[in-house]
């Protein structure tokens, strides 16, 4: 009986076969996947053949460019803090923290990003309609 870590007479042949299979796998990757692997942003994982594959959830639909653009346009069109807050509440299920960060970045420099959903929501409200309301109040002399 041999120890699993001890070299065997078949090791070079097994290594050669395994390397050929890995080479075939790498040849089936998309260029972006291969780049990510080469740059350390992805990794190959050994999984015995009988094990089920891990299923990764798809990002929410709002993370797609068209949906982000529509969300940003809708928020920009709203006139008051209450309207922006209502819009964000109505779409809360698809506006996850990563999506809200993207929305905040696209809304521009008046909207600071944040770490939590509550902070991002507040920043979006205040950086859009809140900013416009404050600017309008100051231009009309309400600050004096």
Q: How would a textbook summarize the main sheet? A: none
Our estimate of the beta-strand percent is under 5%
- Helix share, percent: 55-70%
* Strands, total number: 0
Overall radius of gyration: 26 Å
Chain-wise SSE layout:
Layout: H1 11-27, H2 31-38, H3 65-77, H4 81-90, H5 97-107, H6 117-139
What is this structure, in a nutshell?
With 144 residues, the protein is mostly helical.
Describe this structure in words.
The protein is mainly alpha-helical. The chain has two domains: 11-46; 61-139, no CATH class. The chain contains six helices and no strands. The protein has helices spanning 11-27, 31-38, 65-77, 81-90, 97-107, 117-139. Helix 3 crosses helix 5, helix 4 packs antiparallel against helix 6 (117-139) and helix 5 runs parallel beside helix 6 (117-139). The longest helix is centred in the last third of the chain and has 23 residues, at 117-139. It is rod-shaped, with a radius of gyration of 26 Å. The relative contact order is 0.08. Mean pLDDT is 80; it is low at 1-6.
Key descriptive features of the protein:
144 residues; mainly alpha; 2 domains; disordered N terminus
